[in-house]
Amino acid sequence: MNAFVEVQKLYKEYYKFAIKNNILEVPEDIEHREFGYGYLKKVDNRNLSFKNERVYKDWVLKNSPMHLYKSLAYMLYPNNPGGAEKKGVFRRELAFDIDVHKTNKCKHEDDWICKYCLKEAKNQVIYLIEEFLIPDFGLNEEDIKIVFSGNRGYHIYIKPKNNKIRDIIENYSKDDRKFLINYILGKNLNLNKVGSGWRRRLIKAIKEKDKRISTKKLEKEKNWKKIIENFKSKNKIYKIIEETKNKLELDEKVMDDDIRLLRVINSLHGYTGFIVKSLDSLDDLKKFDPLKDAIFKNFENKFYEVNIYDSRKFEIEICGKKYTNKSKKITGSVLLYLFGHNIKFELLESH
Ligand SMILES: [Zn+2]
Question: Does the UniProt entry include the keyword Cytoplasm (predicted)?
Fold first, then answer.
């Protein structure tokens, strides 16, 4: 059996289901959006556009790509190759991309995932929303859309329900967007003049890390520098400040790049075969287990006999079952995962 043919069959089956059940994202104002897609590489092609929803869905059904993207930007000429100017960008959605690296508990190679790094990704989303988006930016939970990226992170879209606010946000310039992400990453944090958001966040962090440090003076003052310099434990405080600034693993390019593409919601991620799954709320996120809940259940009812001859050792848990390079029988979801990760195997038989 040819693995690639089988993989394509599964992608096709998924897209048929997603379109029939109306869950595949149809980007708003579709004729002004650019699309990109890929099979073995992430983005083989871009500069694609569709004049309406029907043509888009027909294309996805026919091609069932392993990676599918839409532009965050709205453009007059999405087909034009080149930058923002050539494409006539006139508006752009705002989204954050959190992509985590391995944690101390992870035992796998860099490009694999496990419950620990996925948990870390989830914690970072909660931190971004509860520490920045709601208290500092004044957004409501309903203005935020959380989407599992399909691999090691999440996309967090800012979509204010209030159209006036949405207009303002979606007309931000590149510099505005840069300012936003720099604020979150603490890049323009000035210890001579600490604003209320960062004061709140840092005091909380100091209290959590070391109860012996008195934060009373810091709570009242904006000029932290002169206070900290008089502390005996000043090095410890500086360290906590640095750690707090570096807490989020945000991909700055997703915010920066005018013509950035982001995965279509409810498409499949070609590296994992997992669903780029949209979540309904923060509570929904807290209960979400990507290794189960981002799996297309029909794939779990398909079984394949394989001979894995790759010398790399691996372990992946999908839907509560562990698979390693010794596995002989795998499900459709595992087939997609191994294929996406370029693991060498022979496909012997399917059931
Ligand atoms: Zn891990």
Answer: no
CATH number at residue 262: 3.90.920.10
Cα–ligand 1 centroid distance for 39 (angstroms): 25
Q: What total of structural domains would you count in the chain?
A: 2
Residue 153, CA atoms < 13 Å, CB-side half-sphere: 20
d(CA 100, CA 187): 19
pLDDT value, residue 9: 97
> Could you tell me if residue 15 is left (phi over 0), alpha (psi between -120 and 50 degrees) or otherwise beta?
alpha
Ligand 1 midpoint to CA 117 (Å):
4
Token pair 């979606």 is at which residue?
170
Distance (angstroms) between ligand 1 centre and the Cα of 262 equals 23
Question: Can 29 be counted among the known catalytic residues?
Answer: no
Range of the domain at 27: 3-183+249-293
| Residue among 210, 251, 258, 293 flagged as catalytic | 251
pLDDT digits (tens, 9 = 90+) for 150-190: 999 999 999 999 999 999 999 999 999 999 999 999 998 99
Computed over its alpha carbons, how large is the radius of gyration of the chain? 23
Distance in Å, CA 232 to ligand 1 centroid: 37
Single-letter amino acid, residue 290: P
Phi first, then psi, for residue 96 (nearest 5°) are -105, 150
> Catalytic residue at 258?
no
Weakly modelled stretches of the chain, pLDDT under 70: none
* 51 plus 195 within the same structural domain: no
